[in-house]
Amino acid sequence: MTHLVCCVSAEEERRVYFSFLILQSNCIMTSKYNIITFLPVNLFEQFQEVANTYFLFLLILQLIPQISSLSWFTTIVPLALVLSITAVKDATDDYFRHKSDNQVNNRQSQVLIRGSLQNEKWMNVRVGDIIKLENNQFVAADLLLLSSTEPHGLCYIETAELDGETNMKVRQSVSVTSELGDPNNLASFDGEVVCEPPNNKLDRFSGTLYWREKKYSLTNQNMLLRGCVLRNTEACYGLVIFAGPDTKLMQNSGRTKFKRTSIDRLMNTLVLWIFGFLVCMGMILAVGNAGWEKEVGSLFQSYLAWDTPVNNFLFSAFLSFWSYVIILNTVVPISLYVSVEVIRLGHSYFINWDQQMFCSQCNTAAEARTTTLNEELGQVEYIFSDKTGTLTQNIMTFNKCSINGQSYGKDTHTTYHMHRLDFTPFNPLADPDFCFYDDKLLESVKVGDSCTHEFFRLLSLCHTVMSEEKSEGELVYKAQSPDEGALVTAARNFGFVFRSRTPGTITTTEMGRTVTYSLLAILDFNNIRKRMSVIVRNPEGRIRLYCKGADTVLLERLHPCNQEVMSITSDHLNEYATDGLRTLALAYRDLSEDEWEAWSESHRFADKATDCREDRLAAAYEEIEQNMMLLGATAIEDKLQEGVPETIAVLSLANIKIWVLTGDKQETAVNIGYSCKMLTDDMTEVFIISGHTVQSVRQELRSVWLCAHCTRLYTAHALEADMEAEFVSTACACKAVICCRVTPLQKAQVVELIKKHKKAVTLAIGDGANDISMIKSAHIGVGISGQEGIQAVLASDYSFSQFRFLQRLLLVHGRWSYLRMCRFLCYFFYKNFAFTMVHFWFGFFCGFSAQTVYDQYFITLFNIVYTSLPVLAMGIFDQDVPDHRSLEYPKLYEPGQLNLLFNKREFFICIAQGIYTSVVLFFVPYAVLSNATQSNGVPLADYQTFAVTTATALVIVVSVQIVLDTGFWTVFNHVFVWGSLGSYFIIMFALHSQTLFRIFPNQFHFVGSAQSTLLQPVVWLTIALATAICIVPVLAFRFLKLDLKPQLSDTVRKHTKTHAWRGTGSVSEGRLGARGGSRRSGYAFAHQEGFGELITSGKNMRLSSLALASFASRHSSKGKIKMFFKK
């Protein structure tokens, strides 16, 4: 049977029909090359780099005999080396992409073919095929769910690959196809699907099913997307709608935004300047050539005529210009870019291998997911952090509670004198992992206090948790949010055990007695209501409404007789807020049969309304949730991750500003700010900006400057375009900034504002899918591999499992990477100018004839053999102070933030030193050898002797210079420095030997020059003199600078060498003291709206033996953004 799918284009308003024989293949291809296309495509991509194209242009020039005085291999060898290294890297990356593609494409899937199920590879699946999925299988393509083994055509999926959420979600087939569970019935299915074109919107699908002369609307709830995993469902069948590249997963796998470091951008600018400098030198020497040919060269025309193409001095100058461009091209180093990539790769491996950033609990190591941003880690000024799961563990524990005006729970200051309660003798169904320390609450339950019993009865009934009893007494709760799970678990341990539910009942075990309640209604939670309620009928027939929600909305709906207990409970809420706990208020209301019947009728009317259904339901809920009786309040602790306060304190000492961007309400964010030491007690005055218009916010924003040491709170209007500058200037003047109730888009907007106005390096860190936009917007994105899936990690540049590792990433690896890269670049430009500028000075003494100073083989090998490995070793291994000193002295991080180690000023200093060295290397040998003679009286003033002397002095000087620049010596440094110096002499003697001259007489013109030159004492004295003149001023300057104006790193290094290490101890690990003030904590409610309706409909009730699905989607409406600042 051929199944047809119709895609309707929104732009074209027409229908296009495809059969499965010609439709899109399900084969995916993320690789870029194959065996045939690799070489041409890769070369084309590499020559899009300006530097590679430039050197290719030089190579072409060198093939013109009238221009080039160098052989073509002096350019092609380093160019080929750079292209080869890059090609090998690209080929390796693409090989792994091919391997991954083959692994996915060859997965097996059961496809319905001619009435029977047959195994097919994923790549052979076509649109229109019907596929059978079994539990824990990946979805092969975007499928329309036709039927399932679960009741009502339901199935459960995990979408971590799509949105980073590890919780399970429910999908349901169209009712008309839900009974097509048998392959024979499915084989006769001949429906037609009209749907939207392929797109990348994961949360939306629009289509229509035409079958049996009827049409049925299709939504995202009917779709199983590629990348999902079927969970807790024995089997289901689906019709392939989109396959391969058309699937939403592949539509979303676009290229990640390419990030460049500030050093990269500066380097590109400097290379352009160097190129301009090269052109200027070429023009100067060309003008010199024109003048020399006109005034002097013309006198030799009778016996030394110009070459055939040259007929006048101007044309000679033109050719001379291009000749000097070729000779002086080494001032633009071809090996610079590949050397930078090798160094960055080494730094990335150091991050991956760092055992101090390895989390043994989750067996996760730090990972550098990019190799291009390592030195940027040493320049971060602003960190934007998520809260839940990043600063906190996203693990909720029932910590305290207030019942009828009595507070229970552990006191932070007396925990060590309290013992953990053992619930086992009292309650065999207790959760052994539950911790509580106040035995007064357990005694209150045991003696039968009615308020306490009603308190825990509410917690066991008013929720949307699902329960599975794997064996007798072994309960597993599946909660939408960890808050709900903590509350239901607390009720379970105190004797009110939630056991099971059906669409119309809730079964509990209360103090050992099984009780079944009739579930009359669930008044669902949303972020506007900030509360949820259930209406139940107990076995005695009494109807009661139980409600839990944020204290700000629930307390105002209480009966007036609750004033006294409400006042006491409010004080308790303030106490809990002081400890940074998340709170809920609990209340109930008794309903008569008449009240219930009347309200039930109005509720049914609102539920069936076709227009404004949500508003009508909200009004109905509001009507019944009045005049309630207060039971008490709960306090849940969202535990901080290990080392968060210490990490924030250390990073603050490094002058890094930390902003927390969270979707939580103001109170929760403020409390976490105190808990993690972002906010301290010396920040006393609270200043709240509560304006709801642009004008009012602007007025209050400006009034902030009248206060000192104040707390600040902003609304969404602060992000308006005409208020950006005021917002940024005010916020950046503060020590700490906390933005509350922000949406993912607003997180990215805040980051972009700082990037735009402050020109500072930003880092964003988060663990959830809602942090992706922030992570991608920042210069550096860090993903926490935590509780909320892997999507943030997949979008990040670096990842690890604990926030505390951030201080080591920045203060150790980041600082070292920046230091190493800066030292590498300074030395690289220095040595290349020292090497190249000798040709410039020589031009004034050779008639501007474009004659080279050095042997052409020396020119070829200088950058790729003689000096490449020592500078790479310094760039990879160098360090100024040990890692523990970097953490002990956070101020060492500031030079990177101020960009002190490599900037335009430092670049010109390096260039000046290189030019000075070239002057010494040319004029000292020139002056000495002009009148020097050998022991037998033969003059030493010949070209070959001068070339060997200058080249040897150059190699020795740059080797001594890198010895001075290297601050940390390893075996590799020693081998590379002394090995490179030794290789120079070995290769030079080999190239100047008689053997090579006899084999290639036209290629090796310096036969015997090395042996005869280096046997002369005057040559070695000349080399020693040139080296001393080059190095002594550098040594003198460094000693004076160290003595008169030492940097912090110099002081720390001196201290490290002269004193034994005495521990860090820089940051106190003690807990910040308690703070005053009345603050409400965030209400502990974070689950998805609409789940109550799903429960009462019965669609999520499980009749199979598989584990229950969990619904932990956290969607909160975040209509406005609030900023909390501390100045």
TrEMBL record:
Transmembrane segments: 16-35, 70-88, 270-292, 312-338, 824-845, 857-877, 907-928, 943-964, 976-997, 1017-1040
Membrane-related topology note: Multi-pass membrane protein
Binding residues annotated for Mg(2+), in chain numbering: D386, T388, D767, D771
Major location (coarse): membrane
Keywords: ATP-binding, Lipid transport, Magnesium, Membrane, Metal-binding, Nucleotide-binding, Translocase, Transmembrane, Transmembrane helix, Transport
UniProt-listed Enzyme Commission number(s): 7.6.2.1
Presence of the UniProt keyword Oxidoreductase in the record: no
Annotated ATP binding sites: D386, K387, T388, E484, F525, K548, R582, T662, G663, D664, R741, K747, N770, D771
Family according to the record: Belongs to the cation transport ATPase (P-type) (TC 3.A.3) family. Type IV subfamily.
Descriptive protein name: Phospholipid-transporting ATPase
Species for this entry: Oreochromis niloticus (Nile tilapia)
Recorded name of the encoding gene: atp8b2
